Amino acid sequence: MKHRIVTTVLLLGLSAYVVGGEPSRPSWQVNRAVDSTTVNADIRPGDPTVDVGIYYPSNLDESYKEAVPLQGVIAEFQRAKEVFSTAGVQLNLLWVKSAEVDPKHFSIVASNTNNEIPSDGYANMYIEASRNPGALSEAALEAFDALIEEDERNARTVYIMVLQGVYTSYFDTDDNGRNWTPRLVRTGGLSFPSYIHGGNIPDRIRGVITLTRQDSENYRIIAHELGHKLMNVSHEYMEQSPQHEIVGEGGLMLYGAGTDIPSGKEGRWHKERLHLSPYIYRISESGQRITNPDYVEQGFYYDSLYGDKVVHFEGIRLEGEKAKD
Length: 325
Fold this sequence. Notes:
Layout: E1 18-19, E2 22-23, E3 29-30, H1 36-39, E4 49-55, H2 62-67, H3 70-85, E5 90-98, E6 107-109, H4 125-131, H5 138-147, E7 158-162, E8 165-173, E9 180-187, E10 189-190, H6 194-197, E11 208-211, H7 221-231, E12 235-237, E13 240-243, H8 270-275, E14 280-283, E15 289-291
Parallel strand pairs: 4-5, 4-7, 6-8, 7-11
Antiparallel strand pairs: 1-2, 3-5, 4-14, 8-9, 10-11, 12-13, 14-15
């Protein structure tokens, strides 16, 4: 697999991120190191399309930029284009933008741990998420509100935000299922999907995906996180019901090297759910943008937008065994 990277002269954003002692919105400018026209040479107006913008702060720590270079991010995006094209969806790169941003936003704890509770196991994780939706931390809300520019299509656009550290939490338990401990983990990518958050993320910033690491071997982090956002499913594949972390082969939504987006009931309706995504649009022959319908019940897994393209499965009860979901 080859990734074509088009580079010219780097254009850095020149904004000051502190005005009168208060944080300000960055003055994002298109980064001329990436030619989006060339990246989008395969785009066909009538095909299902998702718009993606990439924010790459210009004042990230130099050692981080060496570990996660802009060229590596674009290679990840181009790999994602290949993955989703096999499922009939094209990714349109709107732009790559750079600016100086307030360094306090470089690393954030994404989740509000005060709002989280462990899984009871009586219902599956999708049902439990709809009963107790995830909430963003104040730091995450502040960061995304400041960093994502306002636009009339915010709610239908995916924004990949390159940051240095994004942390999220979940509960783990001992073997008897009675004692729970919150665990904080560092993420390589985080998608903030609707099946977890529902309406707890404002529409203006609901398209955000954070990227803090580069997969220089498989180039699939962006593709995997887009799978969460666009298919609106967790880590699952074929007969494997969702869990927090599943290592396996084949499926894009597992931890591994796979990129398969299966279809039909046996494939957990991944391809069909993808094509129902509210982030997808088509350009008609007359040039009109036709956007998919939006979520009906805040975008949880069983949202009626998906009709029968859902899987009903049992939760995992804690009866002397460690929780798996």
